[in-house]
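Onboarding guide, step 5: your first structure request.
Type a short instruction followed by the sequence, for example:

Predict the 3D structure of this protein.
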Amino acid sequence: MAELNSHWLRSFTVLCEEGHFTRAAERLNMTQPGMSQHIAKLEQQLGRSLIERDTPGFVLTDAGEKTLAMARARWREEREFLDSLEDEGEDRGVISVACSGSFAMLLYPSLIAWMAEAPEISSRLTAAPEESIVSGVLAGTYDVGIVGDVPRHPRLTSEHLGAEPLDLILPLEWEGRPLEFEDLQALGLVQHPDGALYADAVLGANFASEYRSTESLRVRSFVNQIGQIPAPVAQGLAYSILPRSGVLAFPQREKLSIASLPQSSVLQLHLITLKRKTRSPRVEKLARLIREEVGKLTF
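The system replies with structure tokens like these:
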């Protein structure tokens, strides 16, 4: 089959959007017979009926639904491609970033503020595990990624952003009180997907003689929604361990206290991008916003 005619596809898409042959023809500065001819030629090329005429309009066949979805995807990709070439200004086009769920909560308000100031900016923020972040940056799905481990790949470049503390968070009434491992066991842990990794780092460094493994910890709750992890802590029901970005993004953080521990634990954050001679102005601005948010992680 020869390549689908873009004019016929455009006519079909507009027809589906307008739901009426006359309005679609007027929108494209065509005659109604010309519009009908485009649809008929597209159907002939595909060997399928795309619409079934109905009173007062038409309905799409299964083939029509598939064709419409494909056509919309094609126009969307074309617009994104053209946007990607528009590198003259920093406040125009699409920017995409992937990071941990906790950092995403901290970063998103800055992206919203950017969009409010720049109507031609669109942002895409994805919370993902590090393996997906790296593969997404390599595939071009994300302009930048924020990861802990530096990926050793010849097509990637990385910038060290700084250290993010891992905080052991407690109910507010624990502010300034001495903390023993048995106190934590009495409270119980709010566990989450990264909880074991964080517990090994924080509890292993500060309660080495008592902490054995996460299996030995008393767990009060498990939740995989990053924004909900501190909620039981704020109500005095448990403790948890989170990157500081997750603590700062919690709306009721004034109800939390951060334990003062002898041994601090941190995550090293790195900004990764594809290796290029130059980055577009909007990606450079995105990187600046990310650096500013990382700067808020120490207080």
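Each response can be followed by summary notes, for example: The two ends are 63 Å apart (CA to CA).
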